[in-house]
Amino acid sequence: METQSAKILVTRELSDEQIKQAEELGLQLTIEPAIDIEFRDDWFALETILKAIEKPVFAFTSQNGAEAFNRFKASGTAFPDDMRVYAVGKKTAESLISFGLNPIVAEQQDGVGLAKKITDDFLSEPDLKNATVLHFCGDKRRDEFRQFLEQSEIKVRDMVVYKTILKPMNLPDFQPDAILFYSPSAVQAYRESGGFVTKNPSELFAIGSTTAEELSIESGKHVHISPEPDTETFLKFVKGILDEA
């Protein structure tokens, strides 16, 4: 395939730097965001939960959760100085570091991988015996993270700090060579906007395994999964796959 003319549909906004990278790779982008994020602005209920927890441990499975935490903190809420923080991947960790935190990142960069890391630490560190994991998440969160912790008899509370709103998408009238998905919600928005109605010859790409699972179910096709859950790696991966096609 001539990657100079490869047409790529991306289901989220990209930064100017990421768009430039795509152009340098020879990828012709059409950007059509699939979701909107609405952050919580009333923190009283979450502050009440936080005060009632004897030993909170904070877990983040998205950059949106990290951004919401920063807004929560900016509201005047007090957090422990020695708070333990876990992040699902490097990009989420970078966001938390920029907010003055020092997150622990699991080697397996998805929700189950993070739950496994937390479980291992809880089992090996006696001072975590009575801790509760506070998961900063959205209203359309998947259940794997919480279920894994509960099966390991670790206390966990979902702290819903943002809403994910599915957008009506204006799908292009041409057939993209590849479509890039960043979340299960983006897959749902694409479906509700008329995607997957007919057999789709586009190569399908997912930022991570949970998105790939949803995408595979909806499309019935093989899904390529980015080796790292960040856009820079994702775009290079897409180019490599299309070059081989």
Note down, in words, how this protein is organized.
- The chain is α/β, with parallel strands linked by helices and 245 residues long.
- It has two domains: 3-34 and 167-244, Rossmann fold (3-Layer(aba) Sandwich), CATH 3.40.50; 38-164, Rossmann fold.
- Helix content is 39%, strand content 23%.
- A six-stranded mixed sheet has the order 3-8-7-4-5-6, sandwiched between helices. The chain has a five-stranded parallel sheet with strand order 2-1-9-10-11, sandwiched between helices.
- The longest helix has 14 residues, at 111-124.
- The mean pLDDT is 93.
**Mind telling me the CATH class of the largest domain?**
Alpha Beta
Secondary-structure element sequence?
EHEEHEHEHEHEHEEHEHEH
In total, the number of domains comes to 2
What name does CATH use for the topology of the largest domain? Rossmann fold
Number of helices: 9
C-alpha termini separation: 6 Å
What fraction of residues sit in β-strands? 15-25%
Shape: elongated
Fraction in helix: 25-40%
| Spatial order of strands in the largest sheet | 3-8-7-4-5-6
Q: Which architecture of the largest domain per CATH?
A: 3-Layer(aba) Sandwich
Structural class: alpha/beta
Low-confidence stretches: none
